[in-house]
Here is the input.
Amino acid sequence: MTDHIPVLLKETISGLNLKKGDVVIDGTINVGGHSIEIAKLIGKEGYIIGIDQDSDALCLAQKNLEKIESKLALLRGNYRDMDILLQETGIVSVHAILLDIGLSNRQLTDSGRGFSFAKDEPLLMTFNPHPKEDELTAYEILNTWDEENIADIIYGYGGERFSRRIAKNVVEARKESPIRRTFQLVEIVNRSIPFWYKKKSRNPATKTFQALRITVNDELGALKTGIEKAVALLKKDGRLAIITFHSGEDRIVKKTFRDLAQQQIVEIVNKKPIVPSEEELSNNPKARSAKLRIVQKAHDQIEIA
Ligand SMILES: C[S@@+](CC[C@H](N)C(=O)[O-])C[C@H]1O[C@@H](n2cnc3c(N)ncnc32)[C@H](O)[C@@H]1O
Here is the structure.
C-alpha cells in the first residue's frame, strides 16, 4: 500500500487558526493525514467531520484516527453536498473547513480504477470504488462521446495541445474494439503525438488522464459548489483552506474567493497562494504543483446569491 504524504501540512494547519474545542470539516479526509494534526489542536472537546467519496479511504481513516481524542464522524459522500451530509451530525455551523482536492497516492497506485497510466487497469476513474451503472466513467466517455467533446475535455481540463489528434485516434480505435483498459489509451496517446513531445519529462499520457478524471468526477463543478456551501457553513471568523493541484482549479478558487471578498462575505488571508517549501519538495516531489489559499468568514449569517 502506498502511503499518502499530506501536502502543505504545517501551512494548512496553522492557516486554519484552530483552537481547542473547534468543530472542523475535513471535506476530503482520505486516510486522515491532515485530520490527525487537526485533532491535536482541537483536543477532546473538538469535533472532526470527515467526508470522502471513497469508502475504502474512509475505512483506512477510521483506523488511522482510532487514537485521536477529538470526536469523529466519517461520512461517505461528495463535499459539494456537505450541508446535507452535515445534517446527520446535528451540527449547523463550523469553525474551519479543509478541502485538499484531487486524488491520493493510494488511489493513483492501488485503487485498480485506472487513474494511473503506469498500470493496466479498467478505465473507470471514479472516486467512488463501486460506481453505480448510471455513473459516468472514463470508459463511457471514450467509447460513446463525440470526437469533438472528447477533444474539448482533453484540451480544456488537461491543457493537452494534441487533444484533437488524440480524440480522432480514440474514435478510430473504438471502431475496431471498445477501449477498456488504461494501456489501450496510453497506446492511443503515444500514437497521436510527435516524437519530440514524447521526450519531454512528463509521461505524454499525463494530461489526457487528468482531463478524464476531472470530467468523470465533475471536479470543477464540485469545487465551485463546495466553496459556496463551505462559506455558508462557517461561523464568523471561521476559516476555509483549499489546496489545489492544477491551474484550472486554482483559478476557480482565486476568482471565487475574490468575488466573495468583494461582497464582504470573506476576507482573504493570503493574497498570493502558499506553495511547498524546497524542503517539502525534496521529501515529496508530488507536491510540486500544490497551491494553498485561505479565507476567513466576515459575518455570522450570509445569503449567497
Ligand atoms: C489529496 S486526497 C486528500 C488527502 C488528505 N488530506 C490526507 O492528507 O490524508 C483527496 C481526497 O479527496 C477525495 N475527493 C476528491 N473529490 C471529492 C469530492 N468532491 N467529495 C468528497 N471527496 C472527494 C478523494 O477521494 C481523496 O480521498
